[in-house]
């Protein structure tokens, strides 16, 4: 018979288990996940600072979706500190808490010397240092910065680099080969029309749905923007004028409603950022749009599923082939930073060694200066982390051709950021897919919301006059 | 010093006064200031904009939806919390074997951190792996999945259910205090007069417990009204803002969106509503006590 002590012990164990599981990152590699090829990590070099450094340097960054990256980064930063005489302190927190933390630190006028986030931080522009000198120096050393990274760290209306963006992460399509092959698409869908045909067929014949969210979360925001761009629609134009209310947007919204009816279920309205990963790894989704981390997770937890998951580039639509970046690294140096020189020198050293970051993140992080990762194409062609087949990620060699920034064809400005964070676009699509509004009505409502946001930030001088 | 009661009283009161001024009054005044300014997450400098933030808030359909949702969540949760709290309180005061285990289990939802319990509910209501759906399927009540958080009505019901689940133990504990304070001779006199269980319940126990039930309702209302953790974890305000409440919308606008002024204006709407609710309930309590 279970006594009281056993009962308490069991309850406690369950509670701790639940807590640990709750703390696990969205895309944790999981137990038994790939640990990397022994001895395959690239050698690191020391980037000599241009001036003598001293004092402390406190760094705040996210807890990476691939935990091995954080172990590498912490040692990398400490080693740099010991060579330069700077006392480096690194703090990792969940990415969902970073903007709140930045707002608090800026309000208090004290905190970390440099902060990294996985999306543009344009809203903090007035309180951060202009990093033009750093970006210019990096471009001088390593060539042109990738356009999507520049457009996600530079405000053309103020001429300020509110952030430094040395890296990004592509967002390919993930599909289950065993489902798409019988549907007549052995290499997965190449276009939105393929997705409609194949996804509908798989749903009909196997009752396995697709996983493109229309929920109030980040992945829905990304994939739906990709759909809009490939139909020639966007929230703003290159001059930061709102052009959301267009026949192209209506067409994209109508297409999604049709795609939803033929290949998805209502669960796509309830998703959080981890849902499509979980569904794919569990074998419950035929296609999702996400980075490679969900697949990396399944390499450890469910190798059969991992072998069955393959990737396709951004889908083609009537107006081209586009996808949003999955993650966009923004490093900011707040005006209150005590040691900005050390922050900039560290970022140059970090960029110089970006191939080590790419490797430590299991090919998750890509550099915005292509020259810094000459090994990348080789790794993608023959995955050092046990991909089957080894060249599964080869298509990502061309990811820069179809990846664009949030806000495309304009910059990732503050208005785009607020629209992103208040889920105007996913809700615009969801209302039509649910049959609550016509496409034209929903697009008009979303345009009204977007225009109010643009007007507000334009009045603050952070968005171009159009 | 011990003889100077006035000084001593102030000395004892000071920690509470300082605490309330520093952590309640000051942030409240700051919120008023922010709501009348153009303060953003990236620019804390204060520039007076008058009522512009409030005008923009009024023009925002999501604000009105959030306001309506906040009322719906609070009123339904409050009613359920009071009714279930009373039922639970009756169980808690009863004398039976294993009552300590039952009391421990009953109080567990209240003692569990809200973020942790919300994550547990998120898994319970998962669109693919929900154990609730599994049970319903095994019982033959459903065929597919319910998508608890994907349907507006079900999502609202889910958020309310989690609020009720976590706040009912608190209401029960408050009501236990009311129940044990009822003189036993009143109940016995009613029994002698031939009153049955339900008659004693509705004509003796409930009238005497009402003031305490009102306090439980007040706590339930405040905790539901001001909570954003449950919504944030379960639905993030979705689907299509169907579960958006004032607290979550203020956060999305003010912090994630960067518009602190507008976020503060939205958050301030909690104050008059909570004040009115608190005054109404406390007056009702007083009236009941006088009677």
Query: How far apart are the termini of chain A?
Result: 75 Å
Largest interchain contact: A-B, 53 and 45 residues
In CATH terms, what is the architecture of chain B?
Answer: Orthogonal Bundle
How many H/I helices of chain B?
A: 13
Mean pLDDT of chain A: 90
Largest sheet of chain B: none
What name goes with the CATH superfamily of chain B? MetI-like
Report on this structure.
Chain A: Keywords: Signal, Transport. Chain A: Belongs to the bacterial solute-binding protein 1 family. Chain A: It comes from Actinoplanes aureus. Chain A: This is Extracellular solute-binding protein. The complex is a heterodimer of chains A (466) and B (291). Chain A has 19 helices and 17 strands. By secondary structure, chain A is an alpha/beta fold. In chain A, the strands form six sheets. In chain A, strands 2-1-3-15 form a four-stranded mixed sheet, with helices on both faces. A four-stranded mixed sheet of chain A has the order 8-9-7-10, with helices on both faces. In chain A, β1, α2 and β2 form a beta-alpha-beta unit. Chain B has a single domain, classed as MetI-like (MetI-like fold). Chain B contains 13 helices and no strands. The radius of gyration of chain B is 23 Å and the shape is globular. The model of chain B has no long low-confidence stretch (mean pLDDT 89). The chains are: A alpha/beta (466), B mainly alpha (291). The interface between A and B is large, with 53 and 45 residues.
Write the layout of secondary structure elements.
The complex is a heterodimer of chains A (466) and B (291).
Chain A: H1 4-23, E1 56-62, H2 67-84, E2 87-93, H3 98-108, E3 114-117, H4 132-142, H5 147-150, E4 154-155, E5 160-161, E6 167-169, E7 173-176, H6 177-180, H7 192-206, E8 209-211, H8 218-230, H9 247-263, H10 275-281, E9 285-289, H11 293-301, H12 303-308, E10 309-312, E11 316-317, E12 320-321, E13 323-324, E14 327-328, E15 330-332, H13 340-352, H14 354-360, E16 366-367, H15 376-381, H16 399-402, E17 403-404, H17 414-421, H18 424-433, H19 439-459
Parallel strand pairs in A: 1-2, 1-3, 8-9, 13-17
Antiparallel strand pairs in A: 3-15, 4-5, 6-14, 6-16, 7-9, 7-10, 11-12
Chain B: H1 5-35, H2 52-59, H3 61-93, H4 99-111, H5 114-124, H6 131-138, H7 152-180, H8 184-192, H9 197-225, H10 229-234, H11 246-256, H12 260-268, H13 270-290
Family (chain A): Belongs to the bacterial solute-binding protein 1 family.
Region (Disordered) (chain A): 26-49
Protein name (chain A): Extracellular solute-binding protein
């Amino acid at each position: 018979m279970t006594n009281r002590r056993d009962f308490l012990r069991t309850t406690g164990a369950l509670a701790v288990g639940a807590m640990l599981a709750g703390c696990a990152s969205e895309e944790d590699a999981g137990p038994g996940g790939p640990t990397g090829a022994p001895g395959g990590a690239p050698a690191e070099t020391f980037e000599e600072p241009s001036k003598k450094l001293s004092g402390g340097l406190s760094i705040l960054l996210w807890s990476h979706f691939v935990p091995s990256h954080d172990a590498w980064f912490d040692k990398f930063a400490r080693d740099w500190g010991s060579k330069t005489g700077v006392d480096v302190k690194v703090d990792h927190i969940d990415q969902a808490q970073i903007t709140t933390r930045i707002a608090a630190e800026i309000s208090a006028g004290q905190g970390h010397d440099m902060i990294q986030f996985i999306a543009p931080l344009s809203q903090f522009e007035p309180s951060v240092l202009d990093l033009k000198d750093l970006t210019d120096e990096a471009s001088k050393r390593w060539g042109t910065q990738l356009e999507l990274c520049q457009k996600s760290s530079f405000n053309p209306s103020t001429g300020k680099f509110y952030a430094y963006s040395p890296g990004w992460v592509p967002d390919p399509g993930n599909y289950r080969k065993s489902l798409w092959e019988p549907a007549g698409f052995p290499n997965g869908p190449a276009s939105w029309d393929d997705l409609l045909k194949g996804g509908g067929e798989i749903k009909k014949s196997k009752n396995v749905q697709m996983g493109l969210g229309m929920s109030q979360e980040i992945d829905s925001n990304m994939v739906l923007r990709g759909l809009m761009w490939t139909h020639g629609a966007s929230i703003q134009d290159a001059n930061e004028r709102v052009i959301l209310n267009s026949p192209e947007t209506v067409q994209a919204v109508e297409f999604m409603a049709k795609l939803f009816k033929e290949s998805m279920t209502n669960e796509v309205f309830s998703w959080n950022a981890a849902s499509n990963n979980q569904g794919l790894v569990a074998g419950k989704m035929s296609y999702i749009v996400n980075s490679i981390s969900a697949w990396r997770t399944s390499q450890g937890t469910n190798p059969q599923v991992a072998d069955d998951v393959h990737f396709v580039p951004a889908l083609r639509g009537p107006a081209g082939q586009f996808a949003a970046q999955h993650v966009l690294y923004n490093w900011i140096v707040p005006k209150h930073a005590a040691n900005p020189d050390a922050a900039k020198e560290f970022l140059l050293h970090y960029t110089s060694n970006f191939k080590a970051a790419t490797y430590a993140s299991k090919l998750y992080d890509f550099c915005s200066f292509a020259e810094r990762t000459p090994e990348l194409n080789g790794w993608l062609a023959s995955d050092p982390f046990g991909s089957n087949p080894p060249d599964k990620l080869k298509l990502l060699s061309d990811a820069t051709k179809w990846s664009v920034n949030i806000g495309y064809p304009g910059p990732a400005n503050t208005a785009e950021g607020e629209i992103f964070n208040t889920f105007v676009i996913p809700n615009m699509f969801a209302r039509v897919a649910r049959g609550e509004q016509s496409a034209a009505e929903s697009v008009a409502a979303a345009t009204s919301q977007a225009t109010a946001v643009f007007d507000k930030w334009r009045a603050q001088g952070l968005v171009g006059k159009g | 010093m011990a003889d100077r009661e006035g000084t001593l009283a102030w000395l004892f009161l000071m920690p509470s006064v300082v605490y309330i001024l520093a952590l309640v009054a000051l942030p409240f005044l700051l919120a008023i200031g922010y709501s009348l300014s153009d303060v953003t997450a990236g620019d804390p400098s204060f520039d007076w904009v008058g009522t512009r933030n409030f005008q923009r808030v009024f023009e925002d359909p999501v604000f009105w939806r959030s306001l309506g949702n906040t009322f719906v969540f609070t009123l339904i949760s409050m009613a359920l919390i009071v009714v279930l709290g009373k039922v639970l309180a009756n169980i808690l005061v009863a004398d039976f074997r294993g009552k300590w285990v039952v009391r421990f289990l009953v109080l567990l939802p209240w003692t569990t951190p809200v973020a942790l319990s919300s994550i547990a509910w998120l898994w319970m209501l998962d669109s693919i792996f929900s154990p609730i759906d599994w049970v319903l399927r095994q019982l033959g009540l459903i065929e597919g999945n319910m998508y608890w958080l994907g349907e507006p009505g079900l999502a609202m019901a889910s958020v309310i259910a989690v609020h009720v689940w976590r706040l009912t133990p608190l209401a029960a504990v408050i009501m236990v205090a009311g129940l044990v304070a009822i003189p036993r001779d009143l109940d016995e006199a009613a029994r002698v007069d031939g009153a049955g269980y339900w008659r004693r319940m509705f004509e003796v126990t409930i009238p005497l417990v009402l003031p305490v039930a009102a306090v439980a309702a007040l706590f339930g209302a405040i905790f539901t009204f001001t909570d954003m953790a449950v919504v944030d974890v379960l639905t993030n305000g979705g689907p299509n803002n169907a579960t958006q409440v004032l607290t979550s919308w203020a956060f999305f606008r003010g912090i994630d969106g960067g518009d602190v002024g507008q976020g503060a204006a939205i958050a301030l709407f909690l104050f008059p509503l909570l004040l009115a609710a608190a005054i109404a309930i406390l007056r009702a309590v007083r009236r009941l006590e006088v009677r």
